[in-house]
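@here heads up, posting the sequence + SMILES for the NAP run so it's all in one place. Ping me if the SMILES looks off, I pulled it from an old spreadsheet.
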Amino acid sequence: MKAAVVDRAGGTPRYREFPDPEAGEGQVLVTVEAVAVENVDRAIVAGTHYTADAFQAALPAIPCFDGIGRLPDGTRVGFGGVVPPYGALAQYAVVPAAHTAPIPEGIEPPSAAALSSAISAMCMRTAAGLSAGETVLVQGATGVAGRLAVKVARLLGAGRIVATGRDAGALEGLKALGVDAVINTAVDDDDLVRAFRDQAGDGYDVVVDYLWGRPTEQLTRALTPDSFALSKATRLVQIGESAGPAIHLTGDALRTSGLEIYGAARNLATGMAEAYQQVVDWVRSGELAIDVTTMPLSRIEEAWARTDLRGTRLVIVPD
Ligand SMILES: NC(=O)c1ccc[n+]([C@@H]2O[C@H](COP(=O)([O-])OP(=O)(O)OC[C@H]3O[C@@H](n4cnc5c(N)ncnc54)[C@H](OP(=O)(O)O)[C@@H]3O)[C@@H](O)[C@H]2O)c1
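bot reply: prediction finished. Complex structure tokens:
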């Protein structure tokens, strides 16, 4: 079969022949239709992700661990559970039958492939219990996941949405999605603290944090009162770390700021099914558009090198 193949650690996937995978006991052969390339996939290929060793234990290997495809009976499914050196960026994948789930009618494969970022944005409800009318701050709102979080916040009835990013033009573009205020994080620390405070309105109820690192560190400063007053609660959901893997969190920032920090996976076991169904309903009704850029598998090297896709998910389609 044709596949995108990584031949050496840290290399770029190349389009070439690779042995067909064979389905064993309890496994199914999937004809791949669409695969979203996310930061995690790039980090695994670059060797900087903590799962990189497992996924690339033996090279050559095919990147990406999930996608959309058809079973031999024609059923369209989402699939995961590929066993390295096989991956999703190929014409075919073999996965455990239990790691497939039907894709509802009315959602095209490229959108389906990129659905997971919209579903994970539902953490503002599942992990942080967002109620209609509350104020939401999306950290990293110019990215693919952040833009979807803005749309999801609007659909969930957020009262006020504040968005952060580091590109003035991209931030301005978010206003068309219903963002009420934007904050550029590409300023010095004190200016950033001031901007967080200026745009807080009655206070941030929920923060969906795709950044972590310096911007979130400065947010905790902004949330900390400089008198003996207690602040109202801010439920921050940690979901990404585009700006850095760690923050310096002072004791007083936690003690007096009202800050509560949750992981995006909180309550996922009980809330996942409802979150998934809600996102599917929005996509099928046209209320939630998932912005994708599709490219054929045969042009994987060119696709992998693209840096101009801010805000849209790269989706690879076998040709
Ligand atoms: N846990 C989950 O379910 C889940 C789901 C989706 C995403 N994520 C994570 O969330 C993060 C964002 O994913 P994505 O797909 O939206 O990525 P993306 O499209 O590359 O967007 C990244 C965002 O972070 C900003 N950013 C990047 N580097 C930065 C830096 N050094 N300082 C400040 N801002 C910076 C980008 O700003 P520019 O627009 O200016 O580049 C953009 O707003 C990643 O860590 C990803 O792994 C997690």
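MO: DSSP finds twelve helices and 15 strands in the chain.
MO: One more: The first strand starts at residue 2 and ends at 5.
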